[in-house]
Specification:
Elements (H helix, E strand, L loop, with lengths): L10 E7 L20 E6 L2 E5 L4 H15 L10 E5 L15 H4 L5 E6 L8 H7 L15 E6 L5 E3 L5 E7 L5 E8 L2 E6 L11 H7 L4 E5 L18 H11 L3 E5 L7 H14 L3 E3 L5 E4 L4 E2 L2 E2 L6 E3 L2
Parallel strand pairs: 3-4, 4-5, 5-6, 10-11, 11-12, 12-13
Antiparallel strand pairs: 1-2, 1-14, 2-3, 7-8, 8-9, 9-10, 14-17, 15-16
Protein name: MBL fold metallo-hydrolase
Organism: Methylobacterium adhaesivum
Pfam families: Lactamase_B_2
Length: about 300
């Protein structure tokens, strides 16, 4: 497949981990992958990482190798990394100490951002998690610097370079944070982990994702599986599609995949999704989506085709 041409100012998303709850491996999980959540989002040259599941390990290896091959690569990792957490459950945090090109570099800084703890940062929770006897070393022995920031979901994050990211509180045990990135006339919304409400769609969430070019949504369960998993904090691809269609979303990507859903199962689900909404798909690890800058003519944005997809 021809890779999409990435404009220097594009809004891009790359999936490094797409599973929920626990990693999986084996011949049944080759196409979609088995690592837990991690996404790389770039607003032009500005990089964000969203969640630090086991997929963060592959993200680190990729960037280490690319940097070794070409120090001028546009895929480089900046000295200061902004790591946005949806929440701090184990499948979203377990990869943090294994992000080797960053955590082993004394010149690097990781800024963590956590918005589901009523304003508290992730520091205390991560210090409990990564300490004996649960983990052999504490984070403070890592060569890199960690700086922890707390906020309340619903606030807009404004970074030192002026980039802004909007947030929303999602329905999940202990809460979760959805993120919205607006750049170069494009909009990307990441809505995971979430359990849909009744009635649905939720009006505040509907407005939050309205007009998005791409929405990433938690579709862990099928409608048949969901009734016995009610209250676990996850949704279905059907509810994601209802939200996307009501909000005028261009493309829907389903993530936080059930660890028991094999490649065959997911291909069948994806075919069913695309029969109802052609511009929808199930996320695959290492898949990249490029949203080219939207040209502006006479002060108004031009409509562009759906984003190109790549499977490097």
């Amino acid at each position: 497949m021809t890779l999409p041409i990435r404009s220097p100012d594009a809004l891009t998303l790359r999936f490094w981990g797409v599973r929920g709850s626990t990693p999986v491996c084996g011949s049944d999980y080759v196409e979609f992958g088995g690592s837990t959540p991690c996404m790389e989002i770039r607003c032009g040259p500005r990089l964000f990482l969203l969640d630090a599941g086991s997929g963060l390990n592959a993200c680190g290896r990729h960037h280490r190798d690319r940097q070794a091959q070409d120090c001028r690569s546009q895929d480089h990792l900046p000295q200061d990394i902004d790591l946005l957490f949806s929440h701090l459950h184990l499948d979203h945090t377990s990869g943090l100490p294994f992000f080797k090109p960053v955590v082993l570099d004394p010149k690097r800084t990781i800024n963590t951002w956590c918005g589901n703890l009523d304003g508290q940062s992730a520091e205390a929770a991560l210090d409990r998690l990564f300490s004996p006897p649960l983990f052999p070393v504490s984070l403070d022995v890592l060569p890199c610097s960690l700086v922890h920031h707390g906020f309340r979901a619903g606030e807009t994050l404004t970074f030192a370079d002026g980039v802004k990211v909007d947030t929303i509180l999602l329905n999940h045990p202990q809460g979760s944070v959805g993120y919205r990135f607006d750049h170069a006339g494009r909009r990307l919304c990441v809505i995971s982990d979430i359990e849909h409400s009744d009635p649905w769609p939720d009006p505040a969430l509907l407005e939050f994702v309205r007009g998005a070019d791409l929405m990433v949504y938690d579709g862990m369960f099928t409608e048949g599986e969901y009734p016995v998993c009610r209250g676990w904090g996850h949704s279905t691809w059907q509810k994601g599609m209802e939200l996307a269609q009501a909000a005028g979303v261009g493309t829907l990507a389903i993530t936080h995949l059930h660890p028991c859903h094999t490649d065959d199962t997911l291909r069948r689900i994806e075919a069913e999704m695309q029969a109802a909404m052609p511009k929808s798909f199930i996320a695959r690890e290492r898949q990249e989506i490029v949203l080219a800058p939207r040209p502006v003519l006479a002060g108004r944005a031009c409509v562009q085709p759906a984003p190109a997809l790549a499977f490097p």
